[in-house]
Write a structure and sequence with these properties.
The structure holds 2 protein chains of 2 kinds.
Chain A (H helix, E strand, L loop, with lengths): L1 E10 L2 E11 L4 E5 L6 H9 L6 E6 L2 E2 L5 H6 L2 E4 L11 H13 L12 H14 L14 H14 L4 E5 L7 H14 L4 E5 L3 H7 L2 E6 L2 E6 L1 H6 L1 H11 L1
Parallel strand pairs in A: 3-8, 3-9, 6-7, 7-8
Antiparallel strand pairs in A: 1-2, 1-4, 4-5, 9-10
Helix pairs in contact in A: 3-4, 3-5, 4-5
Chain B lengths: L3 H22 L3 H26 L8 H16 L5 H23 L5 H20 L9 E2 L14 H24 L1 H11 L1 H7 L3 H27 L1 E2 L6 H14 L6 H17 L5 H15 L14
Antiparallel strand pairs in B: 1-2
Helix pairs in contact in B: 1-2, 1-6, 2-6, 2-9, 2-10, 2-11, 3-4, 3-9, 4-9, 6-7, 7-8, 7-9, 10-11, 11-12
Classes of the chains: A alpha/beta, B mainly alpha.
């Protein structure tokens, strides 16, 4: 699905991504963990197309996408959610998702009103039901609770019907109950969706991930199944140890 | 059920439609002239609202298309072409082409650079107008003939007034349809949050460029009418003050609202006329008034009619 080869990105003297080589298999949920400043968000930025790598390549579904800008990657089926909530705040929840449906449809028009277009609204409502926001669909997004905005963030990425979903800390800032609900939702989603999950919540990572890659100082120091990662000495020293 | 906003529009249209017989009965034809001027410039403000209000593109050079539309009528008349349909067609197409060229360059920039580059292009056209002596240069040119249409005679001030009114209502309606279409949703969404639009697969550039061209074309129509209104065209129509006036109409009336630019055009030009009749230094009063209105009417004057329950 996604092949990352020797990806490198420098910010001045800082090497934020240092020769990352990683393969994401079709259908897996692949978590990327690492201490703060390990370069997780920089890596996601390069995968999504917002940052241009200095070296290395990214192949998505058999095609080299290293030089493609973000919108064109999105149209090829690579959707992302943002760590810091990024929604259309003055639009309703339903309009937010309908726009994502429209983006995936690739069709535009200058005359027919989009707010009455069932080919956009029907799929959007279905996605909102999936994430559990259907009762809030006519609420202006700015007035949603933080947790609901996080759900909307994921709903918009899903509404583009992606082949690969990049989730950048979907649980960021959520309460315990909200987190549990999001984890439950993602665990049903992961059965039908390839996911790259960047997350600080270790509970979530070990429950959801099929494989985990550990990023430290921009380098992948280990990639393995969760059970092995837990036991990996280098990982414990570099990362898990810090928490205890 | 007809909504409140539709009733407001119907009410405003009836008042505007009744204006000519009333002012003529009162023996005040000057006000017919003023109202027509406002209607025509309101079309320009409506067109600017599409990119400024809905698209977030702060074009500080929209008077360029006013000038192109006006000079299209003037120059065609100069060469003896009086057919109004050709006038309008050339005004609109020429404005669209110039908007496409200016937009193609300027939309690659953003923020203050966008403001400056749109201003710079319009200043170029302004100095072009000054330097072409054949079409009057600095002094401007007199319109040889008004645009000629079958059945409709623009020389009749009342008929011309109704033409301007109908075209204004048409531009409001067309803009309303555009901003609520799929295209318009992307334009507005991208103003709201560009990274999000890119992340779900919208490239902002073509949407913004298309809006810029539509807006320029509509403003060209306004310019063609304006030439017929004044019978006289000067490069001043493309001055930065004129661009600023159009921006003020939109901001004062309410950005990204349907009625805002129309209300703004009426408010600005009526107050301007009132103050100018009162004192020579009317701009000293107008300036603070504009600042106060921007501070106190956050949705612009159109916000007065805004119903949060609707």
């Amino acid at each position: 699905m996604l092949e990352i080869r020797a990806l490198t990105k420098n910010f001045g003297a800082l090497r934020a991504t240092d020769g990352v080589t990683l393969t994401i298999e079709d259908g897996e949920t692949h978590a990327i963990i690492g201490p703060n400043g390990a370069g997780k968000t920089t890596l996601i930025g390069q995968l999504a197309g917002d940052l241009r790598p200095d070296a290395g390549s990214i192949r998505f579904a058999g095609e080299d996408v290293t030089a493609l800008p973000a919108p064109r990657r999105a149209r090829r089926g690579l959707a992302r959610s943002f760590q810091i909530t990024s929604i259309y705040r003055e639009f309703t929840t339903l309009q937010n998702v309908a726009l994502a449906v429209q983006a995936a449809s690739g069709r535009t028009g200058f005359w027919r009103p989009a707010f009455a277009d069932e080919s956009l609204l029907f799929p959007a409502k279905k996605i909102l039901e999936e994430v559990g926001l259907e009762k809030r669909m006519h609420v202006v997004a700015a007035n949603l609770s933080h947790g609901e905005q996080r759900q909307l963030e994921v709903a918009m990425a899903l509404a583009t019907r992606p082949r690969l979903l990049l989730l950048d800390e979907p649980m960021a800032g959520m309460g315990i109950e909200e987190s549990q609900r999001m984890i439950a939702f993602l665990s049903t989603l992961k059965r039908k969706q390839t996911i790259i999950l960047v997350e600080h919540d270790m509970d979530a990572v070990f429950r959801l991930a099929d494989r985990i890659s550990v990023l430290v100082y921009g380098r992948v120091i280990a990639t393995d199944v969760p059970e092995k990662i837990k036991l990996n000495e280098e990982v414990r020293r570099a990362y898990l140890g810090e928490e205890s | 059920m007809i909504s409140r906003r539709i009733w407001l529009w119907i009410g405003a249209t009836i008042i505007l439609a009744l204006l000519p017989p009333v002012v003529l009965a009162l023996g005040q034809p000057f006000y017919l002239d003023l109202a027509r001027r406002i209607l025509i410039l309101a079309i320009a403000a409506v067109s600017l609202n599409l990119i400024l209000g809905y698209g977030g593109l702060v074009s500080f050079g929209h008077a360029a298309y006013l000038g192109i539309g006006a000079y299209a009528v003037g120059i065609l008349g100069f060469y003896g072409i009086g057919n109004g349909w050709i006038h309008l067609l050339v005004a609109v197409v020429a404005s669209a082409i110039v908007a496409a060229a200016i937009g193609a360059v300027s939309i690659r920039t953003s923020g203050i650079y966008f403001i400056m580059i749109t201003l710079a292009f319009t200043q170029m056209l302004y100095y072009l107008g000054i330097s072409v002596a054949e079409f009057g240069g600095d002094d401007g040119m007199r319109l040889k003939t008004k645009s000629q249409f079958p059945l409709v005679d623009l020389k009749d001030p009342v008929v011309f007034y109704y033409v301007a009114l109908v075209l204004l209502l048409l531009s409001v309606f067309v803009t309303y349809r555009i901003v609520n279409s799929r295209f318009g949703m992307v334009l507005r969404a991208t103003k709201s949050n560009e990274p999000r639009s890119r992340a779900i697969g919208f490239s902002p550039y073509p949407y913004r460029l298309a809006a810029f061209v539509i807006s320029g074309a509509m403003c060209g129509l306004s310019g063609a009418l304006y030439a017929n209104h004044t019978n006289y065209i000067t490069p001043n129509l493309m001055s930065w003050q004129q661009s600023g006036d159009l921006m003020f109409m939109v901001i004062l009336g309410g950005m990204a609202t349907t009625s805002g630019p129309v209300i703004g055009a009426f408010a600005l030009l009526l107050v301007e006329d009132l103050l100018a009749g009162w004192t020579q230094h009317w701009q000293v009063i107008l300036g603070p008034l504009l600042i106060l209105s921007v501070i106190f009417f956050r949705r612009g004057l159109a916000g007065i009619f805004y119903n949060p329950d609707a």
